[in-house]
Amino acid sequence: MPTTNLRKLRTNLNRRKLINSGFAFLGATIIAIAIIILLGLTLKMAFQGAERITPEFFTSFPSRRASRAGILSAWVGTCLVMLVTAMAAIPLGVASGIYLEEYAKKNWLADLIEINVTNLAGVPSIIYGLLALGLFVYELRLGQSILSAGLTLALLILPVVIVTTRESIRAIPNSLREASYALGASKWQTIWDHILPYSFGSILTGVIIGLSRAIGETAPIITIGALTFIAFLPKSPFKSEFPFLSFEWLQAPFTVMPIQMFNWVSRPQAAFEINAAAAGTVLIGMTLGINAIAIFLRYQLRKDIKW
Amino acid sequence: MVINNSHEQITSIPKAEVADLDFYYGSFHALKGINMTLPEHSVTALIGPSGCGKTTFLRCFNRMHDLYPGNRYEGSIWLDKDTNILGRKVDPIEVRMRISMVFQRPNPFPKSIYENVAYGLRVRGENNRRLMDEKIEDALRVSALWDEVKDRLNESAYNLSGGQQQRLCIARALVADPEIVLFDEPTSALDPIATASIEELMSTLKDRVTILIVTHSMQQAARISDHTAFMYLGELIEFGRTKDVFNKPLNQQTEDYISGRIG
C-alpha cells in the first residue's frame, strides 16, 4: 500500500478510536456521579439514624416521645402486608402469564390485553389506591385492613409479575417445547415439567422486583386508610389449639414502614427526623435483603440450567 | 404429480400410506398432492433442495404443525391402514406417542441424562423405577450410548458432546417403543465422526422401527436408506428403491438434482 494511503487510513482510525474512548469516558463519568449521589444520600441517612437503630427500636411501638418511639407495629405491618401481596400476586400473575403465553390464541384480543397489561405497569400508584378504596374497602367490605392493603399492592405489582413471567417463558427455546410435545406430552405436562422449572429463576426475579416496589409504596396504602399511629399488633397467625392457624390478622388495622417514616418526618421536633432516618435505613435494609435472597435463589436455580 | 410406477414395485408391507396430502402454511401451499407409502422396517429418505417441503412433509407425520396457528392439512396419512393420522378425531398426542421424532439440532432437556430418556415414559404416567431402569438402559444401549454414560446417568445432559446429545435424543425417542421414528436432518449439526456413528446406529434400528429421514446429503441417503423420495417445490417427484432412484432416475428433475445441476 502506498505510504500516503496508509497514513490516511491511520489518521481515520485514530479519529474513530478517539470518539470511541470519548464516549466511554462520558458514560463512566455519568455513572460515577449517579452512584456517588445515591451513596451519599443513603450514607447520610444511615449516619443520621444510626444512633436510634437499637434492639428497642424494633421492639417498641410508636410514642409521643421521640426517644421511646419504635417501629414494631410498622415492620410487622409491612411483613404481613407483603405476605398477603405475595400470596395474591404470585399465583395470579404467573398463571396469567402462562395462559397468555402458552394457551391464548394470538389474535387482536391477546394484543389488546398485552398492551393494557404493559400500560398498567406505568399507572400512578395512587390510582390503584382509589380503585382499591372503592373495590376492596367499600364494595367487598374488607375494611381498612391488612387484607385490603395486601390486595391493593398485589394489584399494583401484578403487571410486573405478568410481564416478567411472559418474558421468562418466551426466553425458553422453542426446540425444548417441541422436544416435549414430540414425546407425546400434553400442554400442561410441557408447562409443568419444562416451561415452569426452566423459567422459575427469572420469574422469581420479576416477583422480587415487584415486591421491592410494593414495600416502599405509601400513596395507595394511605388512600385505603392505613393508620399513622398504632400501638398494638395484629393477632398472631399461630395459635395453640387446632387448627393452629388463625386468619384474624387479615382484618386488623395496621401501618407500614413508609407511613411510619412519613408520619415522623411531618413532625416539627428534630428528634423525630432522626427516627425517620433510622426507619428509612431499616427499610432500605429490608429491600436489599429481599434482593439478596432473589440473587442467591436465581444463582442456585440457574446453575444447572443453560441453553 | 403422479408417482412414476415403472420403478420395480416396493414389496415390503406399508407401515403408512400417504394419500393426496396437501399442506398449507396460511395461504402458502407447501405440499401438493403427495402420494407415497412408507415401507415397514426400512429406512426411507426424503431428499430435495432447500425449501422443497421435506421437513414440512416429515412434520405432518407427528402432527407437529398443530402447535402453530394457521396451518392446514388436506388428504390423509393412514397408519396401519386403520388410523388416519390427520383425521379430525385423532388426537395429535396419541399420534406422537406412536410416532416419535429426532430433531435437526440435538435438543436434550436441561435435566440429567437419565431424566432425559425417562421423560418419554414419564409422560405416560410410568413411575415403576425398575421397569424404567430396564427400558432406559435398553434405549441407551440401542442408541450406542450406554457404555459412555452408564457411570454418570445423573449428570446433566448438557455435559455431553453434540454427537452424544443427539444419540441421547434418539434414545429418548426410542424408549417408549414407537412404531415410526422421524429424523429431521439428524446429523446436519454434527461432525463427520459423530455423523458416522449415527448413520451406523440407524441401520441397526430398522429391526425395531420404521424410519423416515430428511437429509440434505445425497451421499447420506445413498448410504443408509432402502427407499428414497425426491421432492421438489412441494411435490413428490420420484419415489422408489434407493438404488433405482440413484442409478436410473426416471425423471429429469431427479437426475438433475442427483447429478448436482439443481439444489
TrEMBL record, chain A:
Biological process GO terms, please?
Answer: phosphate ion transmembrane transport
Task: Give an example GO molecular function.
Answer: phosphate transmembrane transporter activity
Q: Where in the cell is it found?
A: Cell membrane
Q: Which Pfam families match?
A: BPD_transp_1
Show where the ABC transmembrane type-1 domain sits: 75-294
Which SUPFAM superfamilies would you find in this protein's record?
A: MetI-like (SSF161098)
Gene Ontology terms: cellular component = plasma membrane
Where exactly are the transmembrane stretches of this chain? Answer: 23-43, 72-100, 120-138, 145-165, 219-238, 274-297
State what protein this is by name: Phosphate transport system permease protein PstA
UniProtKB/TrEMBL annotation, chain B:
Q: What's the encoding gene here?
A: pstB
| Gene Ontology CC, one term | membrane
Presence of the UniProt keyword ATP-binding in the record: yes
Coiled-coil features, chain-numbered ranges: none
In Pfam terms, one family for this protein is ABC_tran
The record, for InterPro entries, names: AAA+_ATPase (IPR003593), ABC_transporter-like_ATP-bd (IPR003439), ABC_transporter-like_CS (IPR017871), P-loop_NTPase (IPR027417), PstB-like (IPR005670)
Query: Where does the ABC transporter domain start and stop, copy by copy?
Result: 16-258
Organism encoding this protein:
Waterburya agarophytonicola KI4
Q: Which GO terms describe its biological process?
A: phosphate ion transmembrane transport
Q: Which UniProt keywords apply?
A: ATP-binding, Nucleotide-binding, Transport
User: Under which name does UniProt file this protein?
Assistant: Phosphate ABC transporter ATP-binding protein
Drop me one GO molecular function for this one.
Answer: ATP hydrolysis activity
